[in-house]
């Protein structure tokens, strides 16, 4: 297997937090951060032409097996934020690192990561190596962005 890493693959989204995502103290409820991570990861996978529909069509699902989040600074509702998702592992599992930045000051507000593994839809077996259909998409992205 070829390891090519001239840079990490990243995606970024911007949004303004919603009132309904806040807790009674007026800050974003901690569970909603994972929704923000998911939106950024969705953009990252689209960059690779491996959306969730394409994953399923290729015969795999990618459940999250581990996650971590570090809340650095509370995020208020009705506040602009920027979320980056960076794929830092992909050969045996998919690890995506996230950072949420203040959309006004650029200060880091949260960081975290998720880890996912491929599971065959037909046999429900976890793959110990990322499937070829995925690694080929990553290698194609690198080949086009080297």
From TrEMBL:
CDD domains membership: 4HBT
Xref: Pfam families: 4HBT_2 (PF13279)
PANTHER family membership: 4-HYDROXYBENZOYL-COA THIOESTERASE FAMILY MEMBER, NOVEL THIOESTERASE SUPERFAMILY DOMAIN AND SAPOSIN A-TYPE DOMAIN CONTAINING PROTEIN (0610012H03RIK)
Organism: Photobacterium leiognathi
Keywords attached to this entry: Hydrolase
Protein name, per record: Acyl-CoA thioesterase
Family: Belongs to the 4-hydroxybenzoyl-CoA thioesterase family.
Superkingdom assignment: Bacteria
Keyword Ribosomal protein in annotation: no
């Amino acid at each position: 297997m070829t390891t090519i890493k001239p840079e990490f693959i990243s995606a970024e989204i911007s949004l303004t937090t919603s009132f309904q995502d806040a807790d009674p103290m007026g800050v974003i409820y901690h569970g909603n951060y994972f929704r923000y991570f998911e939106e950024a990861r969705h953009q990252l996978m689209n960059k690779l032409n491996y959306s969730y529909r394409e994953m399923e069509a290729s015969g795999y699902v990618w459940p999250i097996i581990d996650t971590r989040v570090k809340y650095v600074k509370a995020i208020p509702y009705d506040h602009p934020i920027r979320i980056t998702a960076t794929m830092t592992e992909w050969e045996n599992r998919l690890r995506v690192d996230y950072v949420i930045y203040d959309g006004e000051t650029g200060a880091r507000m949260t960081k975290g990561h998720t880890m996912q593994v491929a599971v065959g839809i037909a046999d429900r077996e976890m793959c110990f190596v990322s499937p070829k259909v995925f690694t080929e998409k990553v290698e194609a992205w690198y080949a086009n962005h080297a």
